Amino acid sequence: MLLHYLKVAARQLLKYRTQNLISIIGLGVCLLCFSVCLYVGRFILSTDSCFEHRDRIAEVGLSLSEDGTPFAGTPAPLASRLRQMQWDEVEALTYVAYPDERLFDIEAKPGELFPFAPLTCLEVDSCFRQVFTPRIVAGSWQVATQTPNAVVLSERTARRLFGPQPADAIGRQLVTTRKLMYSSKRGGVSYTVQAVMADLPLNNSLSFMEPLDLLVLNDSDGLLAFERNGEMTGGFTYALLRRGGTAQSDLESRFRQRNTKFTLYEKEMDVTAGPFGQNFWAFSIASPMLWVMLALGTLVLVVGLLNFFYFQIGSFLGRSREYSLRRVLGGGTRHLTAQLFVQATLVVLLAFLLTFCLIELLTPRLHFTLMEWQLDIDPALLNVQCAQYLLGVLALSLVACLFTAMRARRADTQSALRGGNRHRMRTVMLGVQYFVCWVFVTLAAALYLQAGKTTSTLFGTLTRQEKADILSIPLDYSSLKQADKLALVERMKQHAGVADCLPADICYTRGVSGNLLFTAPPDDEHRHEVVVDLYSTPQNFFDFMHIPLLRGHAPENGHEMVADQTFEADMQDKQHESLMGTTLYDYQGSYTVSGICAPFVTSVYHADRGRGYFSGFGFLPSDPGQYMSHCYLKCHPGQTDEVRRHVLDLLTEALPYTIRPTVSTLLDDLEEMQGLESKLKGVVLFLAVVCVILTLLGVYAAITLDTERRRKEVAIRKVNGAGRRHIFRLFARSYGWILGITFVIAAPLLYILLQQWKQLYTVFFDDGPLFWLGIALLVTLVTVLTVAFRIDRIARVNPAEAVKTE
């Protein structure tokens, strides 16, 4: 019997080979997209599963005694104070500082120090291993806990720095080259590698999606040794509960019974306990990203499954005459269900085979970065997850086959033999496909328009092409002295493709030079603070950036400065006085405002900077000869790549072999600033294209099924004088209704979504009637072309031949 079912299934697949090929490709591509999205979602959901005691770890936090408002972190002394109080419910307490990046000169070869790229560090105490149980692969944790300035490297970092044997890292020195946040020393602090631990997976809440390079214990210049660490929050406190205890029912109640308090910012705080990961899910971007990935994956899977089942159920129901004859001959529902399921299973298996092939082909590219996030997708695990989804799709196929068999059983035999013309289920399925299509097309268009809007607004005095022709060159390398940097920049400028050079103290897209000025000298007790973002700029800054001066002139000496129009307007609004001619002070000297320039925009996101913070920017004079950590080169059109290669050659020659120099463009830096839009627009555009193509293929398959079923009707209409226009209207009317109704339903929902998204930005693209009209025309046009192409082929069929084959 199975062999018979396979023969019938093969004949049906060959009979509608085009439609089945569409179903297989569509389902395979959608399953790939769904699998990747759900891989990321499951990866986020399994955060902290790598920790053996995950279910026994509680997060100890603080909240205001007045209203219960929680703090995101805790002070460093909290863990030690709680240890002194001795809790029966707690087995161990540990404090983990926020992750930070440190620059080291590293003893890559015995007795020789070399600079390396920044390493991501976690400062921890000696109880860290008892709570989080990292696996030590070389060295000794006990030695590390008893050694000042001890380092525990991750295995990946140890192999990268010291070779394939992790044990070779033990005893090597790491020397800081920059001042640490809580240190009074300007570098030169020495650390010793005492152990190597197994790599933590990226989905851990301690350093989520950022590879952790090392742990630091007993840090003489870290937060735990900082004498004022009780006046700030700088990390998280964790408690390992004894077996059988829970954070909520035991430790939290004990905190309340003993009225446990901690004073912070001169306010009395309640000590609280909650489940491990509550701060991570409450304050990180992981939760929104989880929902975004699950939503995108689910929507694209819905389109793929609907496209698949649309044709499968349509082709099943189109064989109603065959089913009725089977009933007349004594066939039962069970046999019909089995026959249909065998056919559906063949198509599903072919679709999954295509998915597995695509995974193998795309394996080298399954690496994603989003802002600071990094994720490498494991192809083997992705294949396993796809195999799990196979069972789900087969179960849905069985339901569809059972539905078809039950419907055939209930159908009137005579009506089925004559054939019917109602296809409500297929119409609903196509409508859902169009709804999802509207969602993806709208979001893709919105992301691209918003990304373009923000890119043009940021550093808006430059055109997009000018931003692409400006090279952004980091020079903040510890091995380069100031004289070396100046000489290096002079060699860069000598290239014929360089039009202008702008030395800078910072990268202008990653921060500001300062934010504090005074209305009087700093030692004057009557002074008032003027808090505003400040840039230290050389004399050619305004010409280089094409920033026009609206009033006054650019700084001509070291005691003049320029304010932008936004700063000037905010000052007039709050202080009712003009900045022009005003003298402001900092700890280095005084500056008279000599000019007002056009607004300078470096961020398009709404941000609450608090009371007293002025909008806009102030531009102070700087001397690049004294300090320079960045450089911008403006290139002649068409010579940017050549200049980039020249700069990379010079940097490679000047830097040690352990440093890989990078050179980007100002446009690249701006796109990195708005990483969410830049990355998501490509993902959503790809999914939108997939959804549109599958929806159109679904329309094509639907028209094919309709025309095959109504070949005789079309032939008779042509004999009676119907032209192509009449035949087009006959078949296209229903698709027009589906298109219009789904747009009317989707547009208001999408409009509300865009208005919520709009609140994040200070500038937003024009989402008026022309935006919606353009989307509607685009989808309508491709639908009309698809329908017209198929109907034109049907209209060319000879009526006599159609009647003969009917």
Written description of the protein model:
- This protein is an alpha+beta fold and 806 residues long.
- The chain has 4 domains: 1-47 and 288-420, no CATH class; 54-276, no CATH class; 424-457 and 674-806, no CATH class; 464-672, no CATH class.
- Helices cover 49% and strands 19% of the residues.
- The chain is built from 25 helices and 27 strands.
- Strands 3, 4, 5, 6, 7, 8, 9, 10 and 11 form a 9-stranded mixed sheet that branches.
- Strand 13 and strand 14 (267-275) form a beta hairpin.
- Helix 2 (17-45) runs antiparallel to helix 9 (286-317), helix 14 crosses helix 23 (724-758) and helix 22 (711-719) packs antiparallel against helix 25.
- The radius of gyration is 34 Å and the shape is globular.
Topology readout:
Elements: H1 2-15, H2 17-45, E1 57-64, H3 77-85, E2 90-97, E3 100-102, E4 104-109, E5 112-115, E6 119-123, H4 128-132, E7 136-139, H5 141-145, E8 150-154, H6 155-162, E9 173-176, E10 190-197, E11 214-217, E12 235-241, H7 247-257, E13 261-264, E14 267-275, H8 278-283, H9 286-317, H10 320-328, H11 333-362, E15 367-370, E16 373-376, H12 379-410, H13 413-418, H14 424-457, H15 464-468, E17 470-474, H16 482-493, E18 498-504, E19 514-518, E20 529-537, H17 541-544, E21 549-552, E22 560-564, H18 565-575, E23 583-585, E24 590-597, E25 613-621, E26 630-635, H19 640-654, E27 664-665, H20 666-673, H21 675-709, H22 711-719, H23 724-758, H24 769-795, H25 799-805
Parallel strand pairs: 6-11, 8-10, 20-25, 22-24
Antiparallel strand pairs: 1-12, 1-14, 2-12, 3-6, 4-5, 4-9, 7-10, 8-11, 9-10, 13-14, 15-16, 17-26, 17-27, 18-26, 19-20, 21-24, 22-25, 23-24
Helix pairs in contact: 1-11, 2-9, 2-11, 2-12, 2-21, 9-12, 9-14, 9-21, 11-12, 14-21, 14-23, 21-24, 22-25, 23-24
